[in-house]
Every structure is written in C-alpha cells, then in structure tokens.
Amino acid sequence: MPKTIVGVIFGGRSVEHEVSIVTAQQIMENIDKHKYEAVPIYIAKSGEWYTGAALFNMQEYKNISKLLAKSDKVFLQPAGDGNHLLYKTQRQGLFSRPKSQRLDVIFPAMHGTFGEDGCLQGLLEMVGLPYVGAAVLGSAVGMDKIMMKAVLKDGGLPVVDYSWLNHHQWEDNPQPIIERIERHLHYPLIIKPANLGSSIGISQARDQDGLKFAIDVASHYDRRIIVEQGLTDFMEINCSVMGNQHDLQASLCEQPLSWQKFLSYEEKYLSKAGKQGMAGSSRKLPAPISDELTKQVQELAKTTFALLDCRGIARIDFLLDKGNTPYVNEINTMPGSVSFYLWEPLGIDFGQLIDRLIGLALDAHKQRAKYIYSYDTNILNLQGKGQTQA
Ligand SMILES: Nc1ncnc2c1ncn2[C@@H]1O[C@H](COP(=O)(O)OP(=O)(O)O)[C@@H](O)[C@H]1O
Ligand SMILES: [Mg+2]
Fold first, then answer.
1. Which fold, 235-365?
2. How is residue 194 annotated by DSSP?
3. Nearest-CA neighbor of 27 among 277, 253, 196, 272?
4. In this predicted model, what pLDDT tens digit does every residue of 325-366 receive, in sequence order?
5. Which ligand 1 atom lies nearest to the CA of residue 259?
6. Secondary element (H or E) of residue 138
7. Which residues pair with 119 in a beta bridge?
8. How far is CA 46 from its chain centroid?
9. Is 331 in the pocket of ligand 1 (CB under 6 A)?
10. Nearest CA-CA partner of 138 in 308, 305, 304
11. How far apart are alpha carbons 369 and 387 in whole angstroms?
C-alpha cells in the first residue's frame, strides 16, 4: 500500500504563529508513519511557503532565517488530474524542471487568522484538496464570536447576553454605544475582539472607565468587538466533538482549572515546556460534574457542532454558572481543537485520532464530489442552434 501523503500546513501570518509550530510538530510526531508520510509546509511570517526536512526539527525554529535558507520555497498548484502538486522553486539551473510533491490530504495546523477562519479552507477548496476539519462556513462562523453567538442564539442554544460594536462607530461617537451596553448588560463585562483566540485582547470591566479602556485594548486587534455579560462565579467545561455531521461523537468533559482566571497567552502556551503546549495546562478529567450534567453538556456540544456546520473535530467550551446552567462560550475548530487528551480515556490515542480525522476528511471530500457544481455541456456551443434563451 502506498502511503497517504499528508501536507501539514502551519505558521502563517497570525499572532498564533508560534503556537501553530508546536501543534504541527505534535501532529508530525504522532502521525502513524506506516500509513502516512507527513510533508511539512511552513508559512513564514512574510507569507511565503516552505518545505524541507529541517522543518521537522523543533530546535531549528530558534533561528528562522537559517531554517528558511535550508528549506525550499513552494506553492500550491491546482492540477486537474487529482494529484495536487507542491512545486519547489528550482535551485538548480534556470531551465531545469521544478520538483513536485504529490499531496493527498492536508492537515491544517494553523491557528487563528487565515488558518482557523476559513481562509486556508477556501484556498484548499479551490485547488480541490481534501483537508481535515471544518470547511469555509463552519470555520468562518466559528471564528467570529459575534456571528457565532448570533447563530447559536437563533438556534435556541444558551449563550450569555451580549452586545457588539464596530470600532469605527466607537471612534465617531462612543456615548450611544456605552448607553446601549449599560442598558442591556450589567458590570462586570467581558470585552473581546471578535476574531482572535488564546485570550489575546480580552479584558474584564468593572465600571464605565474600565469598559472604555477594554474597548480601546480590543480595538488594537479587531474592527469588531463583542461585549459580554461577565459571569463571576463560574466553572469552565470543555467537550470535544468528532464526526461529519452524522454519527457525531462527544468526548469526555474536562474542567480546565487554570483558566478560572484569565490565562494569558504566555501562560497558556509558553509556561509549559515547549512541546506540551496547551495539553500541559492543569485540568480535571473527567470534569467534576454529575453524569446528568455531563450528558447535557455533551448533547449541547453536538448540537453546537451541527448548527455551526462543523466537520472533523471541534472543541466546544462552556461556562457553567453557579446554578449549573451551561452557556456555550465558544467553539474552537481545527486546529485549536486538537484536544487529544479528551479522547485518550476513550481508548483513542493521538495517532489514532489523527488517523480518524484524515479518514473523515477523505470521506467529506468524497461526499462533496457528489454535488453538482457545473454541467459538462458548454452552453456557449448551443448558441445559434435555437436552444438557448437569455
Ligand atoms: N462571559 C464571560 N464571563 C466570564 N468569563 C469569561 C466570559 N467569557 C470568557 N471568559 C473567560 O475568558 C477566557 C477567554 O475567553 P474565550 O471566549 O474563550 O476567548 P478565546 O477565544 O481567546 O479563548 C475564558 O476561558 C473564560 O475564562
Ligand atoms: Mg477560549
């Protein structure tokens, strides 16, 4: 059996660039090497794409310019025959043919902007490559905290009360915005940029001055800002869901302990020795909640996954208030969601999880190929034969 070639795309023009490198290393280390061949595809902060053996080595990332000098610049080439090629720019002579690399499926490991928000997914759709995780719509809606909450609310799922604003309106005239927020919500409030993750740009406000400051902070990161009712006495519960809309399976529920207070970006990713990344944060697994509440959270997680048109895997994060009412806080689509530790107790180790996700990606690709996107008939040929009508 020839190996399935898996392009692992990571890095990218995002504040979560470094986190993405760690995720990609974990995927490439844990992938079943008998079945798959991983091809690293690193997007530098400049936006240029690279591949090469040195990209497998975590130590090399300490000196990026040296690493890039050892690697080959590449780009995606759409190919009609189904073999999607990654052409290496020739270092050889001017007229020598570019090298190519077949890719069978992509494992996106890019967090945040461009990777998790549907942009990369759109590119992969256009070249026709199967890829792991949610497609364009699910990724885009899941990434935007305003759109996500609106869809969830419309679908009858429990979300905290919220309001949102546009940075330009805020700059022009903040007073009506403050009045609207204070009419609908009460302090403390949580202010978040709509489109980031990893707690970046998020703050809590206890009064009007705090609110103004928090909006200014969030405005550095995004044009769109969400202001949420802040819960004071709450527990966080996360649950992962896997599948392609049918046969959805929910993982165990965890309580991520140190997130009780905001965990800063550094704390979340940099405090634990490199490789462990988020998996190293302390948690209670399974979460110390009743079986009944666990079931309720798992069902809500599956409904959220389906409602947001997700695919592959996603982790749904909940806030549980004092009365044990669960609110859906956010969905983390790929790769923010590869919480392999939630699946391990169910007998699915990281390697098997990667295997399942690639299987789901290939299935989803086959399913999509069944839909009609174009007709073989060239209607322009029929013109003048009395068969076309404007
Ligand atoms: N409405 C809220 N009330 C209280 N705390 C919140 C609220 N929303 C978020 N938080 C806290 O902030 C953290 C980060 O918020 P979250 O929406 O998960 O953003 P991110 O996408 O950056 O992870 C959460 O893990 C939680 O601790
Ligand atoms: Mg979160």
1. D-amino Acid Aminotransferase; Chain A, domain 1 (3.30.470)
2. T
3. 277
4. 999 999 999 776 678 899 999 999 999 999 999 999 999 999
5. 27
6. helix 136-143
7. none
8. 21
9. no
10. 308
11. 29
Short-list 352, 328, 326, 353, CA closest to 339:
353
CB-based contacts of 28, cutoff 8 Å, min separation 6: 8, 38, 40, 56
**Residue 39: Cβ within 10 Å count:** 22
pLDDT digits (tens, 9 = 90+) for 256-278: 986 444 455 555 555 443 334 44
Q: Is the CB of 16 under 6 A from ligand 1?
A: no
Which CATH number fits the domain 161-229, given the four candidates 3.30.1360.120, 3.40.50.720, 3.30.1490.20, 3.40.50.2300?
3.30.1490.20
d(CA 110, CA 107): 9
CB 228 less than 6 A from any atom of ligand 1:
yes
pTM: 0.88
**Residue of 234, 239, 329 with the most ligand 1 atoms within 8 Å of its CB, for mutation:** 329
Residue nearest to atom 21 of ligand 1 (CA): 197
